[in-house]
Amino acid sequence: MNPEMSQFHEAFFEEAFESLGAMEAALLQLDPGAPNAEAINSVFRVAHSIKGGSGMFGFTDVTSFTHTQETLLDELRTGRMPVTSGTVDLLLKSTDVLRGMLKATQHSTPIDQQSVADLQFDLEQLVAQRASQPAGGIGTPALAAVAPTRTVVAPPPGKRWQIEFKPYPSLLVRGNDPMRMFAELAELGDVERQVDTRALPPLVELDPECCYLVWTFTLTTELQIDAIRSVFDWAQGDCDLSIVEQASAAPDPLLVEPVMAPPPAPAQAPATATATAAERKPAPVSRSDQAPEPAAKVTSPDSNSIRVGIEKIDELMNTVGEMVITQSMLMQFAHGSEPLRMDLLRNGLVQLERNVRELQESVMRVRMLPISFAFSRFPRLVRDLAQRLDKKIELRMTGEQTELDKTVLEKIGDPLVHLVRNSIDHGIEAPEVRLAAGKPATGTVFLNAFHRGGAIVIEVGDDGAGLKLERILSKARAKGLVGANDVLTDAEVADLIFLPGFTTHDQPTDLSGRGVGMDVVRRNVKDLGGTIDLRTETGSGSRFIITLPLTLAIVDGQTVGVGDEIYIVPLLAIIESLQMKSGMVSRLVGRGEVFSFRGDYIPLLRLRQVFGVPSPPRELTQGIVMVVEGDDGKVGLVVDELLGQQQVVIKSLESNYRRVNGVSGATILGAGSVALILDIPGLVRVAAEQIAA
Amino acid sequence: MTSDGHPGSAAAATMRLGRNTSIREAAAIKQELLTLLDHPETVTVVMSDVEGIDTAVLQLLYAFERDRTHAGRVVAWHGASAGFDAAAATLGLVFGARSIEQP
Fold first, then answer.
1. Number of helices (H), then strands (E), in chain B
2. Which residues of B touch A163 (CB under 8 A)?
């Protein structure tokens, strides 16, 4: 791989995957009964853009496949072929195959050539069948060398476009060679070109890496201006471009031929960039309508946004975190004993605190992305699963613009998929069952997101059969998870589904029911510092409610003192803090020190002992017990005192020191001292190990 | 790319274009062309090896031929190359002493 070109590959793949998502969304919106022309056009543009980009980088498999997609899409958008649900299905499958091809190309792994060949054949067959009408019969694949068929159709009016392309001198060093664009332009129709060399200086003065040439084209094509604009996408920001429609060509009947293979691109040396190109986003060129206008600079449609590497954001967050710590230190200093002199300092620090908080919130917002990025996969998922299971399902999504941290967003996707699949597989009933129950044949799966306080709430639910609580309890008893005589509330019974290995399904489907999902969902949510609750009503449906912090970079914590050390306990993990009284603590055989809490015995964990804090032993009644909850249960943490609640910036212990059991990170307090942030699930496991020992 | 003409030599000079030349070699190509710019005899540019050539290099060659022609000197283009011809045609550049514009 040419190292100079490889730096652009990632940008191409990133944008290609994003575009594929847009293509899929547009295809899902297509109604075969009333196809939306703009949706078809947008799908065409995506295929065209990926084709162009892959061609530039030499990803010939991708180029060839997208060319086939493009051919079919051109038939659809010009109305030569009707949009049918079969066509949409095929195009959706083609996005899957293309996604696989891009991933394989990105990671230099083998492409599944059989899948590609199979689907490519199906796409070509579809076009060939259209091309072979009205004669009927099986048409040959459109891209093979076939004799043209003479079919007269009502032609759309041809259009002539005057295109002026004036590259900036820096175009060539950015890895853009006009030859590639012009070859692509030639595929759109008949091209006449003129080059203006007047700006080319004498050889002695000529900078060999600058472009001095200007081109004017006259293009005759049936395609719309968007297709022409997209040819120059990669040069946006590096050229002045003008596209003006001239008088339409006379609408003569056309000979319609099966689309032939594209003409070979002119042989050219691999373009190399001797300077790093700025990241850019493909954008339409400036509009030039009927009246000729001065050539306008190519701009991006959303030029008020830029792509920023996530590592830059992380650096910024780190710096803001340091500022927060410094500000805290200064505040502590300001609470000194010279009130007069400190007044000014204190006022300034209050202002600084406000500024830092605003800056922190701004930077956090930079990392925030709308949850639509996670929701976007579901229309396709629901559609495919519903078809597979012969169910009628409507997906309703609300609150898609609710924002959350990018890291949280990336990690919540899989749990949401699991919940939705469960809803479809086990929640929504078959249409006839629903009708018999007096419900509409079409079931509803809904996704909802909103902010509440400093958290994001995501709801996943359905109007299906709801959980069968008796069956859950019966299975739990059969597995020994619940005692035969234990009395549980409905909420407690519903909570049993989060136990590892629990399933009420005798026959797991390939979608769900193997009992390895819900416990993982809960663990993933807890790893993100969140919680998951379940509301269910037999016959009416179920709703999972996930609450997540907006960001993982800071945590609201309770500072506690143990000897001379300070620890931070995440507030979300705390159930209750209480003063121990004599008689509350017992020592049970096989369970160590426990105390009675809400009808259950909770193991006690003395942090002094866990972390080896040197200090004289204290009576339990002199300290505080914080009841906290982890994945596997509750534990009572014995501390000396509660110091206060504050928001702390999380610093990784692992990257600065090493992993320590029972500690999830560290922070620097206002006095400049280091406080360890407790890993509550880890401590619960420590307690369990102590009992076992 | 090779040249076997020497600056100041009265013999015809030849410059052979390589199989693939691009902006990466443009600076070196320019220096080679400059040594031949004022060569009094015909400079022959051999294209037969060319498979790939980009805009930067074609621009240099175009300026070279233009400047020599205006100075009353000759550039001969030797050897058939589909790659060279296709590239030049794509850019709309004409080589071979047709109408060359004034700089």
1. 3, 6
2. none
- The Cα A550–Cα A452 span in angstroms is 10
**DSSP letters spanning A231-258:** HTGGGTTSEEEEEEE-SPPP---EE--P
Q: Do residue B92 and residue A215 have CB atoms under 8 angstroms apart? A: yes
pTM: 0.50
Partner-chain contact A268 B54, CB within 8 Å: yes
The residues, any chain, with a CB within 8 Å of residue B53's CB and separated by 6 or more, are A267, A268, A269, B17, B20, B21, B22, B83, B84, B87
Is the CB of residue A333 less than 8 Å away from at least one CB of chain B?
Answer: no
Residues forming beta bridges with residue A309, ordered by sequence position: none
Q: Which of A217, A214, A224 is nearest to A284 (CA)?
A: A224
User: Mapping DSSP to helix (H, G, I), strand (E, B) and coil, where does residue A413 land?
Assistant: helix
Please, how many CA atoms are within 13 Å of residue A615, restricted to the half-sphere of its CB?
Answer: 17
Cα separation of B101 and B103, whole Å?
A: 6
* Chain B residue with the nearest C-alpha to that of A204: B34
Tell me the two tokens of residue A568.
């931070």
CA gap A524, B11 in Å, rounded: 80
**Rounded CA separation A429/A468 (Å):** 13
Structure tokens belonging to residue A39? 């949706």
- Alpha helices, H only, A250-338: 310-334
Residue of B nearest to A183 (CA): B90
3-state SS class at A444:
strand
pLDDT tens for each residue of B48-99: 889 899 999 999 999 999 999 999 999 998 887 888 989 999 999 988 844 3
Å from B100 to nearest chain A CA? 9
- Taken as a whole, chain A contains a residue count of 693
Q: In whole angstroms, what is the distance from residue A377 CA to residue A374 CA?
A: 7
In chain A, whose CA is at the least distance from the CA of B18? Answer: A269
Element housing A407 (H / E): helix A406-422
pLDDT digit string, tens, across residues A626-684: 999 876 678 999 999 999 888 787 777 766 777 777 888 888 887 678 899 998 878 88
Q: Using CA coordinates, name the residue in chain A closest to B102.
A: A198
Chain A nearest-CA distance from B56, in A, is 6
Inter-chain residue contact A266 with B90, CB threshold 8 Å? yes
Q: Does A169 touch chain B (CB under 8 A)?
A: no
- Geometric angle at alpha carbon A242, from A241 and A243, rounded to 5°: 125
CB contact under 8 A, A178 and B24: no
Q: Tell me what ipTM this predicted complex has.
A: 0.88
For B23, which of A172, A193, A194 is closest by C-beta distance? Answer: A172
Q: Which of B24, B56, B101 sits opposite A197 (nearest CB)?
A: B101
Q: Do B37 and A204 touch (CB under 8 A)?
A: yes
Which of B49, B85, B90, B42 lies closest to B65 in space, CA to CA? B42
Query: CA A433 to CA A441: how far, in whole Å?
Result: 8
